[in-house]
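Human:
Class, as today's exercise, you are to examine the entry below, and be ready to discuss the fold:
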Amino acid sequence: MKTHILTVQSRGTVSLPVQLRRRLHLDQADSQIKLIEHDDGRVELLPVVVVPADQAWFWTDRWQAMEREADADIAGGRVVVVEGVDDLIAHLDS
């Protein structure tokens, strides 16, 4: 765990240390941070990864469930590896 002390400027702005911005991929223009205010007074900052519109389908609940299913199949050895299209077709025909 790393701790950083940030100074709040007169207009309410804060600057994140450059190493932190780079590590969290917040060094790009228009990067976003989610601020969560807890009931006990704690404030939590989380980097937000913006997904391009043409890739949003991958992050849907349905697609992520299918990804987890595929990962489980791979981990469980329930896959077949073929060498090229001809082997694939032969496997499918068998």
Notes: Residues 53-93 form one domain. Residues 80 and 91 are 9 Å apart (CA to CA). The longest strand covers residues 32-37.
